[in-house]
Amino acid sequence: PYMMLKKIKAGGPILRGNDMYEGYCKDLADAITRLTGIQFLIKPVKDGKYGSPDPTFEGGWNGMVGELVRKEAEIAIAPLTINSQREQVADFTKPFMSLGISIMIKEPIKQRPGVFTFMNPLSMEIWMCVVFAYIGVSIVLFLVSRFSPYEWQIEESISGTTVSNHFSVINSLWFALGAFMQQGIDITPRSISGRIVGGVWWFFSLILISSYTANLAAFLTVDRMVAPINS
Questions:
Q1: pLDDT recorded at residue 226
Q2: Helix or strand holding residue 5 (H, E)
Q3: Looking at residue 228, what is its pLDDT?
Q4: Which of 55, 91, 156, 202 has the maximum number of C-beta atoms within 10 A of its C-beta?
Q5: C-alpha–C-alpha distance, residues 26 and 49, integer Å
Q6: Which of 110-119, 125-134, 140-149 has the lowest mean pLDDT?
Q7: Which residues pair with 5 in a beta bridge?
Q8: Nearest-CA neighbor of 91 among 70, 68, 71?
């Protein structure tokens, strides 16, 4: 439909020159002539190619692009694909047609959210590492509080003087859980070593919760397409 020879009817006149051709490119050339007054002569490309690098030709190109490079033609009117190689040796006008190659697949069926959908923003490996880190920090905090004298308190009561430590195993787990959930608790470490452990755990919780919140928002708002083709 871009450029082709007209079909001559039986007994019709013999066509010569530009009248021998018809198609979209012919109509485009005629429109350019009416607007600018430039006369042209349509000449088919000798080798029948659009143009690609070819060292056997003068100028290193064959086809329409080669004739432009060798100045055998002034303008090439054709459905010529614009690429970076051709742009290095020829100037292109605005394209009159845009084509895109795509692959169509069946739209996947959306899965209904389940009970544990909130765990999807992070992988199972990360969740397991969080659980191990939570237990490990709680144990370290418990041991640090046991060895540090600043965590032991002397309490006077009717029954006598007693020595107590607030960071038992349960309280250590509760402290780590409250910090991870970004909630305040009644007990805080008094020793330097305990505060270092707590500060590291707070920083870890801050980064993890911020990343989880961002991924959860993106997971709930963006419709992710699960492609059935995986390999």
A1: 59
A2: strand 4-5
A3: 67
A4: 202
A5: 18
A6: 110-119
A7: 21
A8: 68
Tokens standing for residue 220: 């709930």
Average pLDDT in the 212-223 region? 78
Task: Say what the pLDDT of residue 12 is.
Answer: 74
Q: Record the tokens describing residue 32, joined without a space.
A: 């350019």
Strand partners, 157: 160
3-class SS of residue 150: helix
Tokens 């910090």 correspond to 179
Confidence of residue 132 (pLDDT cuts 50, 70, 90): very high
To 10 degrees, the CA torsion angle through 14, 19, 23, 27?
-160
Contact yes or no for 78/3 (Cβ under 8 A): yes
The token pair that represents 14 in the structure block: 């013999």
Buried b (16+ CB within 10 A) or exposed e, 211-228: ebeeebeeeeeeeeeeee
- Whole-prediction pTM value? 0.47
